UniProtKB/TrEMBL annotation:
<keyword id="KW-0408">Iron</keyword>
<dbReference type="GO" id="GO:1990204">
    <property type="term" value="C:oxidoreductase complex"/>
</dbReference>
<keyword id="KW-0500">Molybdenum</keyword>
<keyword id="KW-0560">Oxidoreductase</keyword>
<dbReference type="InterPro" id="IPR050123">
    <property type="entry name" value="Prok_molybdopt-oxidoreductase"/>
</dbReference>
<dbReference type="Pfam" id="PF01568">
    <property type="entry name" value="Molydop_binding"/>
</dbReference>
<dbReference type="InterPro" id="IPR006656">
    <property type="entry name" value="Mopterin_OxRdtase"/>
</dbReference>
<dbReference type="GO" id="GO:0030151">
    <property type="term" value="F:molybdenum ion binding"/>
</dbReference>
<protein>
    <submittedName>
        <fullName>CbbBc protein</fullName>
    </submittedName>
</protein>
<keyword id="KW-0411">Iron-sulfur</keyword>
<dbReference type="InterPro" id="IPR037951">
    <property type="entry name" value="MopB_CT_YdeP"/>
</dbReference>
<dbReference type="GO" id="GO:0051539">
    <property type="term" value="F:4 iron, 4 sulfur cluster binding"/>
</dbReference>
<dbReference type="InterPro" id="IPR009010">
    <property type="entry name" value="Asp_de-COase-like_dom_sf"/>
</dbReference>
<dbReference type="GO" id="GO:0016020">
    <property type="term" value="C:membrane"/>
</dbReference>
<keyword id="KW-0004">4Fe-4S</keyword>
<dbReference type="GO" id="GO:0043546">
    <property type="term" value="F:molybdopterin cofactor binding"/>
</dbReference>
<feature type="domain" description="Molybdopterin oxidoreductase">
    <location>
        <begin position="112"/>
        <end position="493"/>
    </location>
</feature>
Length: 773
């Protein structure tokens, strides 16, 4: 544990990245005992002939000739290339009960899984099982289900297109569309909201647009931690003179100043670049009202221009030619009250007007957004309001402008594209059925929240996970654990030991897999896998590292093995596909629009962009135009309801990521840009709220959720940290706070857990606490 910082709170005063990042990289390489010969491999990530970084979905510059340095990319690769191993001997010595007592950080430290194992109830340990026996057992159990919808197939967003396509084919051939996946908890509001407005659930920009934009509005995102390579892009924009605005309750340090580790001059002269020049700080969940206010002001500015004979502020040509519903939208904006907008956004009218002025001045505006917009009750409406705003000035489908949802997992977007979708379209199913000569199930399946509810009801009995950490990533932890434990069988295809392997069904298996950084040989031939980034670019990735164990199988081969054992190979010759992934790509080309000549196009270095109709100003909506959508602004939110019952003591909690974690994987215990070291159980709160609650900075508190049911939801033992955060809002890290998120606290229209706005009460902790994990 020599690499653990002493628990302390110490505000960060430097620019983001820079030497601090390099120091952390060095620590990570040593801590993970990455074999020396593999250091060079780290520098081949995101190069044309290397592997796609498993860190995040931010795109790469084509043919990047220099290593795109990214601290968190290195952490992700180092974590996968670790020298530490979870062996059969380790698992024999550690009961599941004893492992349950360890933190997520400690579980991560045990290293890579090495061989397939099955839970043995008598000894309460995992024991080795052969691959063939594991497949046979799972196949027998799946075949024995009276209804195929009693199985759910989870996907985390690291799976390749090839693995994800084969997985959805396998599950659909068993007869179900139950595909809970990490995007249900992530960018679902984007994927569900945008098709109604612009006809596609994906971003409309490419990296080239960042070269010519003059304004970027960054909503609810912390790129210095979560998408560090994006910062380099933002730095270039700022240097060119573009105006960058952060819209975020927190003034994230990483969005203030940045020292590029790519720039020797900046590194040696300790200089940096200012990134955002303006910080607008709404209350949690206040963006919908804020964006509506900005749109209202844009309309007012246009009225003023009309009256004074000045240039129009609205792009009237775009609105006339490309959109539908403008009049009703404008009437709704004019009728909206400024008082309500100010109250619900938490932003004073002058600041909203200031933001509108920046937006209206921009000739080429890009809007980016992350989890700060998507994990709220009104997230779909918020994203639709954002597209409305962009349409007012024709900022979609032209150079230097557009919508840029910033995805999380490195292939989460690709997974959905190739069929990980619980609500598939009829057209997709028709093509899939025709390509593989079967009748796919039509009934929509369960998403994440619905799967948990179905397990609790006893309607789902087998849970299979292609990666991820379902038990920790999902809301309402104790109920989710009850749900998983009620299953007859849980199966995890995974690289590392995690909580989900310990919260298991009556029968349970862990199937260890190759990571993306590792050489994947099938029939002696190295296989590449393909992924799609945040700007819909598809490219191929080849592993370069020796596999962590000779007993690992690739995800694709595991899925083929499971499918063969369950369905036989008369209709689909599963193992033939797994022998050469190009065969799977040929089938994807047949089934999924936009993948024509797939193998030839990914053979070109850098890959290819998928067609995004809105980018070409083609609108695949019901009206054939981009739609202005009218949604009301209501003060009747779950937070307001909780305050009506418990008064102003109710705080709105956001659950967020620290710098040293990757979702539920805890690499280390620091969050250096926010000044937290050696600990994770902290809660950030405004000083005036501390005073109002009669609490002090440095005291320990327990948190409970205020919800309409009688279920007690609590998370105990958090250190209060006085912080620059809006009044009434508090922030703490996930997954520790997931016990507080009610299962039915979800976004309208997309069922995403509202993990950035939970009504909570803070209570002085009864136990004497010391800083711990
Ligand atoms: N190192 C690292 N990289 C990652 C991940 C990781 O865990 N670690 N996770 C990956 C994944 S799956 C994802 S989805 C992305 C997540 O990346 P982000 O989208 O940056 O997600 P969060 O860390 O949850 O941070 C959300 C940001 O939104 C702000 N915010 C919270 N509520 C609101 C609000 O109501 N309004 C506004 N305007 N802002 C708000 C928070 O202050 C914070 O800055 O990162 C990906 N990359
Ligand atoms: N409260 C709260 N909850 C949240 C969020 C939040 O902001 N707040 N964010 C949500 C978001 S945005 C997301 S995306 C989800 C994330 O949910 P998940 O994707 O389920 O979680 P991860 O922590 O990314 O999964 C990590 C595990 O994946 C496995 N793994 C890693 N690499 C590979 C691989 O290459 N192959 C396979 N098969 N397995 C691999 C390892 O065993 C590792 O332990 O969490 C969501 N939950
Ligand atoms: Mo995510």
């Amino acid at each position: 544990m020599a690499f653990k910082s002493k628990p302390r709170i110490e505000p960060y005063t430097h620019a983001a990245a820079g030497w601090g990042a390099l120091k952390y990289v060095a620590i990570n390489l040593i801590k993970e005992r990455v074999p020396g010969r593999d250091y060079a491999m780290l520098f081949r990530q995101n190069k044309a002939d290397g592997f796609d970084c498993p860190g995040c979905a931010w795109p790469d510059r084509e043919h990047a000739s220099t290593f795109e340095f990214c601290e968190n990319g290195v952490k992700a690769v180092a974590a996968e290339s670790t020298g530490k191993r979870v062996t059969a001997a380790f698992l024999a010595q550690h009961t599941v009960t004893s492992l349950m007592a360890q933190t997520d950080y400690e579980l991560e430290q045990h290293g890579r899984l090495t061989e397939p194992v099955i839970y043995d109830g008598l000894s309460d340990t995992y024991r080795p099982i052969s691959w063939q026996d594991a497949f046979a057992l799972i196949g027998t159990r799946l075949r024995a289900l009276p209804d195929p919808n009693q199985a759910a197939f989870y996907t985390s967003g690291r799976a390749s297109n090839e693995a994800a396509f084969l997985y959805q084919l396998f599950a659909r051939m068993t007869g179900t569309n139950n595909f809970p996946d990490c995007s249900n908890m992530c960018h679902e509001a984007t994927s569900r909201g945008m098709p109604h407005t612009v006809g596609v659930g994906k971003g409309t920009v490419t990296l080239d647009d960042f070269e010519t934009c003059d304004t970027i509005l960054l909503f609810g995102q912390n790129p210095a931690t979560n998408h560090p390579r994006m910062l380099a892009e933002l730095r270039d924009c700022a240097r060119r003179g573009a105006t960058l605005v952060s819209i975020n309750p927190l003034r994230e340090r990483g969005l203030e100043r940045f020292t590029s580790p790519q720039s020797p001059v900046e590194m040696l002269t300790l200089s940096d670049t200012r990134i955002c020049s303006v910080f607008v700080r709404p209350t949690l969940g206040g963006d919908y009202a804020l964006i509506k206010g900005v749109a209202k002001r844009v309309l007012e500015l246009d009225d003023e221009a009309l009256a004074s004979g000045g240039a129009r502020v609205l792009d009237t040509a775009f609105i006339a030619e490309h959109t539908h519903g403008f009049d009703a939208f404008a009437a709704d904006l004019r009728a909206e009250s400024w008082t309500l907008i100010e109250q619900e956004s938490g932003v004073p009218r002058e600041e909203i007007e200031g933001l509108a002025a920046i937006y209206a001045r921009g000739q080429r505006v890009i809007c980016t957004w992350g989890m700060g917009l998507t994990q709220h009750k009104h997230s779909v409406q918020t994203i639709q309001m954002l597209t409305n705003l962009m349409m007012l000035r024709g900022n979609i489908g032209r150079e230097g402008a557009g919508l840029c949802p910033v995805r999380g997992h490195s292939n989460v977007q690709g997974n959905r594209t190739v069929g990980i979708e619980e609500q598939p379209t009829g057209a997709f199913l028709d093509k899939l059925g025709a390509a593989f000569r079967f009748t796919p199930p039509r009934e929509h399946g369960y998403d994440v929240v619905e799967s948990i509810e179905a397990m609790l009801r006893g309607d789902v009995k087998i849970f299979v996970a292609l990666g991820g950490n379902f038990a920790a990533a999902t809301p309402d932890t104790l109920r989710t654990w009850d749900a998983l434990r009620a299953c007859n069988l849980t199966v995890h295809i995974a690289t590392k030991l995690n909580r989900s392997h310990l919260v298991h069904g009556k029968e349970a298996l862990i199937l260890p897999t190759l990571g993306r950084t590792e050489i994947d040989l099938q029939d002696g031939v190295p296989q590449g896998v393909t992924v799609e980034d945040s700007v819909s670019k598809v490219h191929i990735s080849f592993g370069m590292n020796t596999p962590a164990s000779p007993d690992l199988m690739s995800e694709t081969a595991i899925i083929a093995g499971l499918a063969h054992a369950t369905l036989g190979s008369d209709t689909v010759d599963w193992r033939w596909y797994a022998q050469d992934y190009a065969r799977i790509r040929d089938k994807i080309a047949e089934v999924v629009d936009g993948f024509e000549h797939y193998n030839a196009r990914v053979a070109v270095p850098g890959g290819f962009h998928l067609y995004v109709p809105a980018r070409e100003r083609q609108w695949h909506t019901s009206s054939g135009k981009a739609e202005f959508l009218v949604n009301p602004l209501s003060p009747d939110t779950p937070i307001a309801q909780a305050r009506a019952r418990h008064g102003e003591r109710v705080m709105t909690l956001m659950t967020t990521r620290s710098h040293d974690q990757y979702n539920t994987t805890i690499y280390a215990l620091d969050d250096r840009y926010r000044g937290v070291f050696g600990q994770r159980r902290v809660v950030f709160i405004h000083r005036a709220d501390l005073e109002m609650l009669g609490l002090r900075d440095g005291e320990w508190v327990d948190m409970t959720t205020v919800w309409h049911d009688d279920i007690e939801r609590r998370a105990d033992g958090f250190l209060l940290v006085a912080y620059d955060i809006p009044r009434g809002c508090v922030a703490a890290y996930y997954p520790e706070t997931n016990p507080l998120v009610p299962l039915d606290s979800v976004a309208d229209l997309c069922n995403t857990p509202t993990s950035k706005s939970i009504p909570v009460l803070l209570h002085r902790s009864s136990a004497t606490m010391t800083a711990s994990l």
